Batch of 4 targets.
Target 1
Amino acid sequence: SDTVRLLSSSQVITSVLNVVKELMENSLDAGASSIDVKLDNYGLDRIEVRDNGHGIKAVDTPVMAVRHFTSKICSHEDLEHLETYGFRGEALGSICAVAEVAVTTKTEEDDVSTQYMLDFKGNIVSQKPSHLGQGTTVSVMKLFKNLPVRRQCFSSTKKCKEELKKVQDLLMAYAIVKPELRLMLVHNKIVLEGFFPKPGADYSTTSSSSPDKTFLFVNNRPVQLKEIMKLLRQHYSAQYPDDPARNRFPMLMLKITVPPSSVDVNLTPDKTQVLLHNKEAVLTAVEALLVSLYGFRPN
Ligand code: ADP
Ligand code: MG
């Protein structure tokens, strides 16, 4: 039954670290020489593992995430000379039971890659051609969405940071035992684009009655984010230490692009207030950009 499936899956898949480890082992089993791991919101919103391994044959894709399917052993004898990490055929199926999973894969024989969306039971619900090269990319979205208590366990920033550290340690361990393997870990990819006055060029107004010369967008939506506005103003004003007003509103534009799942836009009817789930990471990235532009950190 579905409940049994959920219970047993939640024993196999217990954490972000655990998912990353299973997916990386599949990549290594597929002979990958390069593995990229991307996490959004510490992996709770999205875990993506991309490899350049041999891919999944079209004949195997319908069953890849079906419980106890494995392409790695054919006979009982194979069990005795096992050279792969996986052989139980449990990981992908278990992950499907506790998250939303998409698998994109291309073998040497395939002309293009195919993206498969999987359901709760690991069955393919839809598929479409995609543009990736040879290898496999597994995306795991909304981990533990159906296990609120488990998800809650990972919701404190402290716990999340501990978990991220463990993922870093895991990659480090693989890097040590497999020095020929190329590994990459990206957490919270945030794209910042903007129109900023050159350092020293004063395009500002000191009148607090017209703070609306700073345009801020999150995922193409005009928004008001007090903390970011303040940060922009501080860094910009810090160029004018002798200016007593010290309250400049620069004329600039900043576009922030974050994973859609890491932002809530419906807080107010006009949707200008947004909630960034990874606000700390965004603030850090904006600050780093401002320091690189204006060269100093205001106190
Ligand atoms: P196991 O690793 O124990 O075989 P999994 O549930 O982890 O079971 O994976 C199921 C099957 O899906 C694998 O046997 C393999 O055929 C295929 N597979 C999963 N991930 C990859 C990958 N990154 N590259 C190639 N094949 C994969
Ligand atoms: Mg496996």
Target 2
Amino acid sequence: TMTLSGKTALVTAAGQGIGRATALAFAKAGAIVHATDINEALLSAYAGETGITTRKVDVLDSASVNAAVAGIGAVDILFNCAGFVHSGTVLEASDEDLDFAYDLNVKSMVRTIRAVLPGMLQRKNGVIINMSSVASSMTGVPNRFAYGMSKAAVIGLTKSVAADYVGKGIRCNAICPGTVESPSLQDRMRAQGDYDTARAAFIARQPMGRLGQPEEIAELALYLAGASFTTGQAYAIDGGWTI
Ligand code: NAD
């Protein structure tokens, strides 16, 4: 079994969904976990969990990210999980949507990496895991223009960082889930008006005939956090969507 004993992990968007499941999995594996989110109310649900410290961090704000990392000290494992799903085609996405997708889904990762990487390089040891999606350069998904564009950029970011620092003790990989049961997915299914039809459409994209669970994605994040011979890869974990 994977142990992260003695490792310090920083998780963004850990308030709910995949980020929360991963923070819990990292702590269970022995890591000292800093679970961060912009929503402090969500973070309060960690009360009583051993090995987890919570902190409000807005990944859109460099000062907020830098202050958090200054407070934490050495970060061995960074999980960049924050992201937002826009719907719409190229003709429907506004410039504001594109800017926001790029800021939250891509530049957020640049902010956190810039904050933790110098320390990782000093220690010649560091793991960076970035949340992408199969809706990226892996596969084109209808009605997900801003999202797919930004998540493809996450894969490019991941490979670029991996290439620059592969000889310096840094590994950087991306996770590309299919559709995963999470609070924001519930919101999106409700927002479509007919919840049951929306849910059935999401499930229909999954050849396994079901949605993924956040804990199943956390297992891959845990693997990548403790692995030793993989870097620069984009790992699909999608119920068979991209077979
Ligand atoms: P979610 O969307 O339900 O939760 C997102 C969390 O991000 C919330 O707790 C929110 O408060 C936080 N957040 C929003 N803006 C923030 C900011 N500026 N700074 C810090 N935190 C902020 O969780 P999810 O659905 O598990 O998605 C997590 C990640 O996984 C996202 O990057 C998403 O794109 C990606 N992903 C999700 C799915 C899916 O089907 N759920 C599939 C593929 C990829």
Target 3
Amino acid sequence: MSLELCHLIDLPQIPDARGNLTFVEGRRHVPFEIQRVFYIYDVPCGGARGGHALKTCHQVLIAVAGSLDVIVKDDRGGQRRFQLDSPRRGLHLPPRIWREMENFSAGSVCLVLASTPFEEADYYRSYADYCLAEKATP
Ligand code: TYD
């Protein structure tokens, strides 16, 4: 899948002297129905997450606290790096994009909105398997 399809989404913010509020509605702010939410936190210093691609699931990643880097790769040597550092910006990753996450700041929390329930069979856990599958897909 083309890395050009990975893009940042500006989310709404309701500014308030009591503290800001951001909300996300499926099919309005993200281009899919939200079927699952999970979050990654307490990542040790220097730790990395991800290291997989998904066959059908769309995801939007949001650094709701702190910051992290998301590296996306295709099967042809292409690579892009996104720094997520704002709770009002999401990164949409369509299916069939290899992703790695690193440089988590202390106390960071990465919220993920997903278009499907969890299913292990939807994962490519090996970059070699992902590349083989991409090359076999028209
Ligand atoms: P994984 O997707 O590998 O995490 P990361 O991309 O952050 O490295 O998931 C880690 C483990 O958690 C794995 O055993 C699958 C399980 N898991 C669920 O049970 N449900 C979920 O929604 C997710 C995302 C993971």
Target 4
Amino acid sequence: DWTMHAYRQRAIDKIRAQVGKGRVLCALSGGVDSSVAAVLIHEAIGDQLTCVFVDHGLMRMNEADEVVTMFRDQYNIPLVHVDASGKFLGELEGQTDPETKRKIIGKLFIEVFEEEAKKIGGAEFLAQGTLYPDVIESVSFSGGPSVTIKSHHNVGGLPERMNMQLVEPLRELFKDEVRALGRELGLPDRFIGRHPFPGPGLAIRCPGGITAEKLDILRKADAIYLDEIRKSGQYDKIWQAFAVLLPVQTVGVMGDGRTYEFVCALRAVTSVDGMTADFYQFDMNFLGKTATRIINEVRGINRVVYDVTSKPPGTIEWE
Ligand code: XMP
């Protein structure tokens, strides 16, 4: 893409001019935005950049490994992988209120990130994958508290507290342009085309209390669902698709025994920007086949339902 090629050069010059010989930290989330920002900044200033990946234990199947492998092995970007799952799951234990769960995750994220930043001797700059719509959004909310959809990804409050300046090379771009820039930088298509994933991760797809066991069950169901979606060639038609593990057990039969296990809800929506969404119209055979696979392969789930709520009145996530 010719325009993106030019943008890449301009962005690199700008980053070099801003940062000079300074050090930059980037909180990598595994999402497209922070990844594209990190690769671009690395191209501009090399090892003056260190990425910190705070693994909260709320990622999907194999996700953390994939991110670490891609950045370390493929791009040679210095990356600190912090496994903080014990800390996050510990503090989330017994918490059932959606807002409380989000706040705990946001607070811990900042704490862990700050600790790691200190360990590596600090930095003058903090890189963020802020996009143009994020900028607009926080402006339109001005006057009230700064509520952004990406409350977790924006390590809000940190820059001031740690006396850091922001480096935001994607600030002028829309999502599709970030994807084009990612392709221009050589990120794999499969990675660039990934559905958005919320900062609080599986915590908001496990309504009510979270346990390691529930997360494990949810991960397996979600992986099967996404596998079926990819195999049927529908992945790119869908904005977001994921499984939700409900805090409800129902009775079922398996062989000649009675089961009493959790209900799994499947969600898939089409959308342009995530602000409104329609539920995705799967073929019933697809849903039946996927439900059968989930129930047969995942211990702990004996019933699957499909969410046919659009946004509004529903939200895309369940919490
Ligand atoms: P809702 O559920 O509000 O979600 O319809 C709209 C879009 O935002 C994502 N989402 C989040 N992303 N941190 C994020 O980075 C969050 O706390 C968060 N909550 C929702 C959601 O996945 C969807 O794409």
